Amino acid sequence: MTDFDSALLLEDARQAVSEAGSLIARNFRLPKDIRKKGNNDLVTETDVAVEELLKERLAGLLPGSRILAEESASQAGLGDLTWIIDPLDGTTNFAHGLPFVACSVALWHEGAPLLGLINLPLLGELFTAQRGAGAFCNGKPIRVSETDHLSQGLVATGFPYDINTYLPEILDHLGKMLPRTRGVRRPGAAALDLAYVACGRYDGFYERALKPWDTAAGILLVEEAGGQVSCYDQNVPYSPGDSSILASNGLIHGQMSDLLSS
After folding, report:
1. Structural domain count, the chain
2. Same domain, yes or no: 196 and 110
3. At 99, phi and psi to the nearest 5?
4. Which domain holds residue 97?
């Protein structure tokens, strides 16, 4: 199925993501059943419940579309018409009572994100974007920042679950970024980081080893808000699942790329 109204579909998806956010908010203060997928990679019953809710709602919006979701990723790949779902980005934050969590949904269509939604239910913000139609937060247009010198920029990063593999690089990049910026932040949810670049709170964001569901919605938000997304090497286009991502307001993109690629 390829004949659909993108604007109407975005509104229907927004309702589904809002419902998912309400579930996250209801469960936030409740006792949590926490399991480990890896040494530092957690999953809760809320992750699973939100994913099932979104899979049901979104599949019904586009019969025949595929689903690529974090907790059941082995069941489907990335096709020409695919919903990409991160039900609860920032599960560790959620498990420890920190509000920096996101529900992220993108519709991948013909090799690029067509729709992107990032809900921060505990912070009261819902970011949306449609290819070619701009980016919004709670229905109001957003733009990236106008900072053009890295020394005046606030940037964000994240740490991969396989910390031992990436630790030397992480420390090297922090050693380069910290003295050349106004600061480096690490909230622990890549979807939130990308949404914050899109609305100008951060001037840039970089991270290694993210999955498609971490970034698919966020890259559309950043681009539709006037920003730029690439791999660490600014000359290499980014696709969800690539080994590195650099997102910025565009004005400091080259400066960040030079530091990350050197």
Report:
1. 2
2. no
3. -85, 5
4. 6-141
